[in-house]
Design goal:
This protein has 2 domains: 75 residues, no CATH class; 193 residues, Intergrase catalytic core (hpI Integrase, Chain A). It has 13 helices and 3 strands, in the order αααααααβββαααααα.
Length: 351
């Protein structure tokens, strides 16, 4: 298949995408790329990138990078498929630098979330507890949680085991699950809808499809408004696990990297890696630390001491009766007045 125009190139590449990625990329392409009939030159692309991004760490830097990445991916895909001879005009154009997100769940936010899970009663609350609890205790990606197969989570002694299957790194991962999470998973399995049949732990509305990403976003949005988790994303639970495993529990980077399933490109990583059983202790320790936040008094946390305030004196409903006025006794007044006694100095002046 030979693509005749640049518009056909972008449309053909978008058709290769699926799900939410395709939806988001179509929105990006409509802003500029799908309005073009010919392949833009490098000068035009660079001018568009500068006008849209405005510079490093500016507000438009992220959206400019997304547009540039889409154009670059479409051109390279077409060259690889041998259906485009226009080349790649994005060569040498660098992305803008963008600030890194550093939002993690605070202690009080984790406490409110866990206390909400303890009170789960309705079907949706039990679903949210199992779904977001899986993200909270393992630091998995939201896509890994929603596409977890039904039979991928099994009991392993007093804990659990989860075979993720093929992950973002292209490899499978098996990770332990803490004891606190297994009853939540079992409670969801007990009420999980079985019609229509679905191979996923969290089935979606479509046949043989997992719960949609839009549904997860909506559930987390509602949960955040209810619990006051302002500005906290469900993906931030992954960063929360990594930070607190290091900051609070003191685990090394190799252990955290293995739990997050980040690829180790070193030559030693080909031979030496963290086994399944070696991850049981840090996973369970993190779960115990989280649950201990619910029982820990607020004064023991890393929070400022409460301010000392004056006690408030209540105002009575009716004013008190006025106190009696005490009149001092009047001294006897005599018509005969004694002459004033002058000092020696006054006597000299008046003499």
């Amino acid at each position: 298949m030979r693509l005749e125009s640049f518009h056909d190139l972008i449309a053909a590449y978008l058709d290769t995408l699926t799900g939410r990625t395709q939806t988001n990329q179509r929105i990006v392409a409509k802003q500029w790329l799908l309005t073009l009939t010919t392949l833009p030159t490098r000068t035009e692309i660079l001018a568009r990138h500068k006008a849209k991004g405005q510079g490093h760490f500016e507000s438009g830097a992220s959206s400019a990078n997304t547009e540039l990445a889409l154009l670059r991916a479409a051109c390279r895909w077409s060259i690889y498929q041998e259906c485009w001879e226009g080349g790649d005009p994005t060569v040498g154009i660098k992305k803008w630098q963008t600030p890194r997100r550093k939002r993690v769940a605070k202690f009080d936010e984790l406490t409110r979330l866990l206390e909400y899970f303890d009170r789960a009663f309705t079907d949706r609350e039990i679903l949210d507890r199992a779904l977001f609890g899986l993200m909270l205790f393992t630091g998995c990606r939201p896509g890994e949680a929603r596409t977890a197969p039904l039979h991928a989570i099994t009991q392993y002694r007093d804990m659990g085991a989860w075979i993720k299957g093929k992950t973002k790194t292209g490899e499978t991962q098996e990770i332990p699950l803490p004891t606190q999470l297994m009853p939540w998973i079992d409670a969801w399995k007990a009420i999980r809808p079985t019609v229509p049949a679905s191979p996923y732990l969290f089935p979606g509305g479509k046949l043989n499809q997992p719960v949609g990403l839009e549904c997860i976003v909506q559930h987390w949005h509602d949960l955040s408004l209810l619990l006051g988790l302002h500005g906290l994303w469900n993906y931030d639970l992954r960063r929360t696990l990594a930070c607190y495993l290091s900051n609070e529990l003191g685990y090394d980077d190799v252990t955290i990297r293995a739990i997050l399933n980040h690829a180790d490109g070193s030559s030693l990583g080909h031979y030496c890696f963290k086994s399944f059983d070696s991850l049981k202790q840090p996973i369970q320790a993190y779960a115990n630390w989280l649950c201990a936040l619910k029982q820990e008094p607020a004064g023991n946390r890393d929070e400022p001491a409460p301010l000392h305030r004056r006690p408030v004196i209540p105002i009575p409903a009716s004013p008190p009766p006025p106190s009696p006025v005490l009149v001092p006794p009047v001294a006897e007044v005599s018509d005969e007045k004694d002459p004033p006694i002058l000092s020696a100095r006054e006597g000299e002046v008046l003499a």
